[in-house]
């Protein structure tokens, strides 16, 4: 039987090594390539993921791996590690310190462990099922915000809300008290620590959202897709995270109203 605390200790050690690699490349001249979806990738992304895969294969050879840069390996295993070596590569290549390393451990597809490591600023959020989320070892909790009209919200990039999703962005902008942009994975960390109340994103991949699930839950928050369903490898990539169940329910109602209006 896997001990999640042992798995978290492993994840922390792996993140220490990954962070050293990230800092060695950060704010240095890098050749930036572009993938098929036009997202940037660097030797740092690929090098960090290679390092993490080697660590996982050595410590847990029976586990599967789902990584952004090097794909899927044994996804049908009971335990699968999910890895995003640099979440926020656009920030990384432009010298912005709010990029992060993400790891999750799934059991039968359900997130049991999550980690957000911010190597440029020395902050690390960790969460395992059944325990409090921590920032650098100290427990954190979400805010008590229950209403959209009082909420401080984040979304990474309003440009992503295009086409039929444009009304979703308009609704978010109009309903919340304060809306800020950028941040990528750091937004969920801020939510877990009580500094913002809601995060709404679209177009994410499993390695973007699965590592933050247990971070949000372990701090007392709620996270789901836009229909209120639990996140898994097959989710659409539309993600809502909220500080409280009441706030989450209000935003889900607003999203449902928009869907109904579009279908009418």
From TrEMBL:
GO molecular function, one term: histidinol-phosphatase activity
Catalytic activity: L-histidinol phosphate + H2O = L-histidinol + phosphate; a myo-inositol phosphate + H2O = myo-inositol + phosphate
Pathway annotation: Amino-acid biosynthesis; L-histidine biosynthesis; L-histidine from 5-phospho-alpha-D-ribose 1-diphosphate: step 8/9
InterPro entries recorded: His_9_proposed (IPR011809), Inositol_monoP_metal-BS (IPR020583), Inositol_monoP_superfamily (IPR051090), Inositol_monophosphatase-like (IPR000760)
Domain of life per record: Bacteria
EC number: 3.1.3.15
CDD domains listed in its UniProt record: Bacterial_IMPase_like_1 (cd01641)
Binding-site positions, Mg(2+): 68, 84, 86-87, 208
GO biological process terms held by the UniProt record: L-histidine biosynthetic process
Cofactor(s) annotated in UniProt: Mg(2+)
Keyword vocabulary terms for this entry: Amino-acid biosynthesis, Histidine biosynthesis, Hydrolase, Magnesium, Metal-binding
Pfam families, per database record: Inositol_P (PF00459)
Top EC category: hydrolase
Entry's family note: Belongs to the inositol monophosphatase superfamily.
Name used for this protein in its record: Histidinol-phosphatase
Taxonomic source organism: Puniceibacterium antarcticum
């Amino acid at each position: 039987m896997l001990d999640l605390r042992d798995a978290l200790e492993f994840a922390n050690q792996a993140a220490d090594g990954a962070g050293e690699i990230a800092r060695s490349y950060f704010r240095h001249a890098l050749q930036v390539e572009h993938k098929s979806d036009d997202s940037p990738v660097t030797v740092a992304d690929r090098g960090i993921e290679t390092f993490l895969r080697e660590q996982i294969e050595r410590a847990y050879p029976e586990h599967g791996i789902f990584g952004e840069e090097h794909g899927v390996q044994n996804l049908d295993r009971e335990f699968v590690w999910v890895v995003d070596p640099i979440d926020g590569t656009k920030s990384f290549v432009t010298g912005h310190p709010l990029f992060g390393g993400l790891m999750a451990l799934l059991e039968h597809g359900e997130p049991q462990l999550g980690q957000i490591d911010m190597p440029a600023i020395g902050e690390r959020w960790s969460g395992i099922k059944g325990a409090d989320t921590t920032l650098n070892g100290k427990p954190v909790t979400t805010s008590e915000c229950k209403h959209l009209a009082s909420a401080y919200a984040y979304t990474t990039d309003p440009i992503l809300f295009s086409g039929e999703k444009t009304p979703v962005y308009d609704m978010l902008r109009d309903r919340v008290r304060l809306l800020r942009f950028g941040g990528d994975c750091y937004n969920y960390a801020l939510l877990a620590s009580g500094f913002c109340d809601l995060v709404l994103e679209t177009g994410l991949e499993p390695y973007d959202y699965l590592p933050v699930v247990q971070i949000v839950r372990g701090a007392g928050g709620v996270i789901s897709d836009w229909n209120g369903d639990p996140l898994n490898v097959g989710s659409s990539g539309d993600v809502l995270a909220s500080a409280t169940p009441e706030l989450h329910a209000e935003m889900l109602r607003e999203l449902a109203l928009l869907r109904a209006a579009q279908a009418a």
